[in-house]
UniProtKB/TrEMBL annotation:
Keywords: Membrane, Mitochondrion, Mitochondrion outer membrane, Protein transport, Receptor, Translocation, Transmembrane, Transmembrane helix, Transport. This is Uncharacterized protein. It is found in: Mitochondrion outer membrane. It is a single-pass membrane protein. CDD domains: TOM22. It comes from Hibiscus trionum. GO terms for cellular component: mitochondrial outer membrane.
Amino acid sequence: MAAQPKLGGVSLPDRRSASKPDSNILSRITSSPIVSRGKQAASDAAFVSKKLLRSTGKAAWIAGTTFLILVVPLIIEMDREQQFTELELQQASLLGAPPAAPARS
């Protein structure tokens, strides 16, 4: 039984034989030393970019966690101390004491 084409399908053109000049040009271009050097350069660039992104990601992780562990608690404590100083100045002004200059350390 012969295979019948499907209705509404797309028929592809016949493949050209290897003896035609178009396929020889394509094979010569893809196997040329310039193309192989370009492929190697692209591969090397991708490798270096991947390593750079990985090391940048590690550095960002270290910087971020260090900031969270060391700097954020310091900022919170400084804010708490500033609020405490403002509260003392407010209480002193309510009690009628002369305002004192804030202590500088």
